[in-house]
Specification:
Number of helices: 3
Shape: elongated
Radius of gyration: 20 Å
Structural class: mainly alpha
Order of helices and strands: EHEEHH
Strand order of the largest sheet: 1-2-3
Largest sheet: 3 strands, antiparallel
Length: 103
């Protein structure tokens, strides 16, 4: 996975075509660039997710493992967020219910 190294954005910026927009990345930022389509990403895990979803037939064994690890991490993060959002909604609902009962 030699192409996952960070590169200066000037090298990673994609040019505008009819199918794909140009990417506006700050000049002082570094980006992980997809070797298949040239799209820049701020994090290596986002690059791994992109490769697994956009270029699944072209991946090597290391890239597949990186995708699986990033996907697992993303699923865990989403599950945690969903539980926190549900808890917040339940608290909000019962808070409004108590206020309504007192008024």
């Amino acid at each position: 996975m030699t192409d996952t190294a960070t590169q200066p954005v000037a090298d990673a910026a994609a040019t505008s075509t009819d199918d794909e927009p140009a990417y506006d990345v700050p000049a002082d930022a570094t980006a992980h660039t997809c070797s298949y389509c040239g799209r820049p990403f701020a994090r290596e895990s986002w690059l791994a997710l992109h490769r697994g979803l956009a270029h699944p037939n072209e991946l090597g064994d290391e890239e597949i493992e990186a995708f699986r690890a990033a996907h697992s991490e993303e699923e865990e993060s989403l599950s945690t967020f969903r539980l926190q959002a549900l808890g917040a909604l339940v608290l909000l609902y019962f808070g409004f219910l108590m206020v309504y009962a007192l008024v």
